[in-house]
Task: structure prediction
Amino acid sequence: MQSKFGSMSDEFLKLQNQICYRLYLASNGMMRLYKPLLSPLGLTYPQYILMLSLWEQDHVTMGQLATATSMDKGFLSTLVKSLQGKGHIQVTSDSQDSRKKIIALSKRGQKLKDKAQDIPRTLLCMLGGDQGRPDEIARLKAMLDELNRTIAGLEES
Result:
């Protein structure tokens, strides 16, 4: 289809019309907002995601951690080594199957949770969620959850 402004397919290929580009910008923006909040804890954003998962459920296998965080096992391995080096987590072999590794919080990692308590609230305030916009934030989370379910379904088929 041709118009005086070009074909419709040209419109579909414009960067500003791409959902993926908006998600890319939002994701990068969120990581930039988190950076000054996580810096005092000595954590990167991916390390924070891993720690959040462990604070929720400790003593898990690498497979369980990969499922909980939706992270690639290779990337996850790098994060685990880094957090182990910082003393936040411990990695041991499973007593039933020595090939399985158990990831557990160290005392230092457990204490880090106390220092991280205000991060979600601080970020919510930064996004205006504390100023009459909590419904918008809840809707956005629901939309993103639905998008992620749709993508996961497409990947499985």
